[in-house]
Amino acid sequence: MNAGKRAEIFRRLKAANPSPRSELHYASPFQLLIAVILSAQATDKSVNLATPALFAAAPTPEKMRALGVEKLVPYINRIGLYNAKAKNIAATCALLVERHGGEVPRDRESLEALPGVGRKTANVVLNVAFGEPTIAVDTHIFRVANRTKLAPGKTPLAVELKLLKYVPDEFRHDAHHWLILLGRYTCRARKPECPRCGIVDLCEYETKSLT
Prior knowledge:
Blueprint lengths: L2 H14 L12 H11 L4 H14 L3 H16 L5 H19 L7 H5 L6 H11 L9 H10 L7 H11 L2 H17 L26
Helix pairs in contact: 1-10, 2-3, 2-7, 3-4, 4-5, 8-10
């Protein structure tokens, strides 16, 4: 795919949704961090059902740390892998309090040192909470980037690095939101809805269907 096509894809995505936002519900960088940790191998919808009660009970690292694993589990036990996530969240809250004064760090190295935080989670926090032009590659973005030929790669990191190289600067901050939404609601895994896709004529997917 050439640079002109890539730029036009993002022009259209921006025109359709000028100010995209995360679909996770949160009221602070800390709450965003916890929501993203919970969202691993789970849907945003399931996370949003769990976090209102959790954040009402423990809106800060100090209060969530005080809950401990046993009291944390009942708030999140409808989310996949909740036992492991509860342990990671408790440990993350302890580190936030002990190493960072109860604040979410703004650098990748410190974020990725937190239990349950990998590169994708760090990218989401850096982008959404702190306005960094990072691109978090989840399953939706990985699929869309490969299917459309926008930034094909064999691993999420390979796709991320290509997107950082190819996405024009003016679109980079919001790029991962647009691509997630495209993959979640239109360019679906089992059957992409090509007839209602706004970039169907730019996409290079070999077997796209217009009927």
